[in-house]
Specification:
It is built from twelve helices and seven strands. The protein is an alpha/beta fold. Helix 5 runs parallel beside helix 6 and helix 9 packs antiparallel against helix 11.
C-alpha cells in the first residue's frame, strides 16, 4: 500500500484544493469511490453528486447507483436527459462518446452554477488512458478535472482503496453505457437498447458477473469472463430460449471472452 498511500494522499490534496466540488456520479466503482472520498475528506456540504439518467443507462445499473448513494449518504441529484441528438443516434459515429459527453457537460456546468461548485470532477482513472476514450478528451477540453488521473491512480488502485476502506462496492463489475454494445455506424434505436438490456439481465440472473450482449442485427454476441463461460454452456438451452424471445435469431458466444471496448477493435484494424 506504500505507493497507493502516496497516490491517495495526493488525491485527497487535489480534492481539498478543488472544493466545493460537483461530481459526475454514475454509481460505478470509480465515481462512487471518488464521491465517498470527497465526502470523507472534504465534507458533504462541499460536494454535490449529479447522476444523469438516459436511455443508455440500464435500469439495473440505475437502481444500484441510487442504492450506493443512499448507503454512502451522498448528496445526490438525478437529471433525466437524452444526451445524443437524433442525427448522432442515426449515424452513431466512432466519436459518439465525445458528443455524449458534450451534452453531459452542459448539464453539469448548469448544476455547478446552481450549487456554486468551484470544480467539476469525474471518475476517469489512469487505466482509462490506455483505451480509446474520446469522452475523456472532451470532458478535459470542457474543463472537467479527473482527480484519479491527476493522482496517478489506476483501476486496480481504486479497487484496492475501496476494499481497504471497507466499501461493499470494491469488487463491483465494470459497467459502460448501452450504446457501446452497438457497432459504430449502425443506428442506435430504442428497440436495440431494449434487446441488449434484457439479454444482459438474463446473463446477470444466471450469476454472470461481467456480461455483455453486443448487438449485430439478428445476432447477439455474448461476452463473459473466461471462467464464467461454463455458466453459459450449462444454461445453453435457457439462454437460447430467452434470447429468441427477446428478438435475437442467432445467439453466439465470443470465445475471446469479455474485454472492454471490443467494438473499438474494428477501429484499430
Amino acid at each position: 500500500m506504500g505507493v497507493i498511500s502516496n497516490r491517495l494522499n495526493n488525491l485527497i490534496q487535489i480534492l481539498k484544493e478543488s472544493a466545493p466540488l460537483l461530481i459526475a456520479y454514475s454509481g460505478g466503482i470509480d465515481s462512487a469511490l471518488l464521491a465517498a472520498l470527497a465526502k470523507e475528506y472534504v465534507g458533504s456540504d462541499q460536494i454535490c453528486c449529479v447522476l444523469i439518467d438516459g436511455p443508455e443507462v440500464p435500469r439495473r445499473a440505475f437502481h444500484e447507483a441510487i442504492k450506493i448513494a443512499e448507503n454512502l449518504h451522498l448528496p445526490l441529484e438525478v437529471v433525466s436527459e437524452n444526451l445524443l441528438s437524433e442525427i448522432i443516434m442515426r449515424k452513431n459515429p466512432s466519436d459518439r462518446c465525445r458528443h455524449c459527453k458534450r451534452g453531459f457537460f452542459k448539464i453539469l456546468e448548469q448544476k455547478a452554477k446552481e450549487h456554486k461548485s468551484h470544480s467539476i470532477a469525474d471518475g476517469a482513472n489512469a487505466s482509462d488512458l490506455l483505451e480509446y476514450r474520446p469522452g475523456i478528451d472532451e470532458m478535459s477540453a470542457c474543463g472537467v478535472i479527473h482527480p484519479f488521473i491527476m493522482a496517478g491512480i489506476t483501476k486496480q488502485d481504486i479497487r484496492t482503496i475501496a476494499r481497504e476502506k471497507g466499501f461493499s462496492f470494491w469488487n463491483k463489475p465494470s459497467s459502460a453505457c448501452l450504446y457501446s454494445r452497438i457497432p459504430y455506424g449502425e443506428e442506435i434505436t430504442g428497440e436495440k437498447l431494449r434487446m441488449i438490456e434484457l439479454g444482459e439481465d438474463v446473463l446477470a440472473d444466471l450469476g454472470i458477473t461481467q456480461g455483455r450482449v453486443r448487438h449485430h442485427g439478428t445476432i447477439a454476441r455474448i461476452e463473459v469472463l473466461l471462467p464464467e463461460m461454463n455458466i453459459v454452456f450449462t444454461n445453453r438451452e435457457k439462454i437460447l430460449e430467452l434470447f429468441r424471445l427477446i428478438g435475437f435469431h442467432y445467439i453466439t458466444l465470443d470465445l475471446q471472452g469479455y474485454r472492454p471496448g471490443s467494438m473499438d477493435e474494428m477501429l484499430k484494424r
